[in-house]
Specification:
alpha/beta, binds magnesium ion, globular, five-stranded mixed sheet, 12 helices, 393 residues, binds guanosine-5'-triphosphate, 4 domains
Length: 393
């Protein structure tokens, strides 16, 4: 533990280290992040804590999933078997199976001229510079999916289980209609795309009524409004801390721990069909006008256009970096380890071997973050996508 932590934060960090359950670890990490006084000297520590919190939450979700599975006996959700899971969604007949097959260079998913060809998840896999991505095509989203129409609840659960969403929009029909429908269902299903999780912490306490810190970040009608919202939601004893500018909607989202935040891109399909150019332009205009930050990639699975390189765009959405290890013989591993963007040398070694971390002397790095090939660095150096690392312990 760095000695430059404020005592409140240090105490929470110690409790986190001593915690026995995932729930407790999450609680103390969240509290730690809530009380830590931020300054340059704790930046990397903070980033590490955030990374750990994210992993613990993922672990908790996975556990819940497994429990849910054994209860119902249905193996509808695809367990994560690769570095990341990419879910391919869209309205009926939009071309999802064709995109899945084109990307994974297989004929595995059935393509039908009739609607609802895909009624259960179809799985494929691809690599992006060594990182393995699992592709899961989910059954079509329909009007009412969020209410359970056409296995809608399972489709939405499948999306929440993913790490990134690929929305397939059919350019032979009105893509704006399709997108509006999908966004509506996802919103009802408590899934937010390309939206940053609100930077607010909400800590329930035993007593002390409602305390609000940094309320100037709240864009609503002042501190009273915050308290009104909290009371209306049934909070009596709670500490709320704002760290960033937060709208009323964002604050409401922050109070709901069941909301899932995911990155997303649009793959516009059937770019070879009649009218597709015009539809594509309209889609782009709609995105611009509605201020939706979502990348659109036009493709044609039929002509195999726009498919090459798609895996790199998908990978870049994950917020991960690929780090390749180099052994004593100078051989570089084909398969990278995946770390969160902003990760430091210490986090890479932690994944490789905890023992190595204990006996760490220095590391050498090659790539974007190295000032020169084989630069000698310590544990605190930040890594960038594609870096090669050799550890000396
Ligand atoms: N012209 C053209 N047609 C395509 C393209 N991709 C798919 N299609 C056609 O669109 C129809 C649906 O394709 P699928 O890939 O099965 O679409 P889907 O979204 O998986 O469909 P469901 O699973 O039934 O919802 C089929 O008739 C395909 O031949 C394309 O790039 N160009
Ligand atoms: Mg299909």
């Amino acid at each position: 533990m760095p000695i430059n932590l404020n005592p409140e934060a240090a105490a929470e960090w110690d409790k986190y280290l001593e915690a026995n359950t995932i729930e407790e670890q999450i609680m103390h990490l969240e509290r730690f992040l809530g009380v830590v006084v931020k300054h340059k000297g704790v930046e990397n520590h903070l980033r590490m804590a955030k990374g750990k919190l994210k992993k613990l939450k993922a672990q908790r979700a996975k556990l819940k999933l497994q429990q849910a599975k054994t209860r119902s006996g249905e193996r509808w959700l695809v367990p994560k078997g690769e570095d990341a899971q990419i879910v391919i969604i869209g309205t009926v007949n939009s071309g999802r199976s064709s995109i899945l097959n084109a990307l994974s260079k297989s004929e595995a998913a059935k393509i039908g001229t009739y609607p609802f060809t895909t009624v259960r998840p179809e799985v494929g896999s691809i690599t992006a510079a060594g990182a393995r991505l699992q592709l899961v095509e989910l059954p079509a989203i329909v009007d009412g999916s969020a209410q359970g129409e056409m296995s809608g609840k399972l489709v939405l659960a499948g999306i929440r289980n993913g790490d990134c969403v690929v929305i397939v929009l059919d350019l032979s029909k009105d893509p704006v209609d399709q997108l509006k429908l999908i966004l509506k269902e996802l919103k009802t299903g408590k899934i937010r795309l390309n939206t940053k999780k609100p930077n607010v912490t909400i800590e329930k306490v035993g007593s002390g009524s409602i305390q609000v810190f940094n309320s100037h970040f709240f864009q609503g009608e002042g501190k009273e409004a915050i308290i009104d919202i909290l009371r209306a939601k049934g909070y009596t004893n709670v500490i709320v801390r704002f760290y960033d500018s937060t709208s009323v909607d964002q604050f409401l989202d922050a109070l709901d721990s069941t909301i899932t935040y995911l990155p997303a891109i649009i793959v516009a399909s059937k770019g070879d069909s009649e009218g597709s150019k015009m539809n594509y332009e309209e889609l782009k205009k709609f995105l611009e006008d509605s201020n939706l930050q979502m990348q659109v990639l036009p493709t044609s699975a039929a002509r195999k256009e726009g498919i090459d390189g798609l895996e790199e765009v998908i990978f870049s959405q994950l917020g991960k970096i690929r780090i390749y290890t180099r052994n004593a013989n100078g051989e570089v591993a084909e398969r990278p380890i995946l770390l969160d963007q902003g990760a430091i040398v210490e986090e890479a070694i932690e994944i490789l071997s905890k023992k190595m971390l204990k006996f760490f002397r220095f590391a050498r790095i090659w790539g974007k973050s190295a000032k020169f090939d084989g630069e000698k660095v310590g544990l605190e150096r930040e890594l960038l996508d594609g870096d090669v690392i050799q550890v000396f312990a």
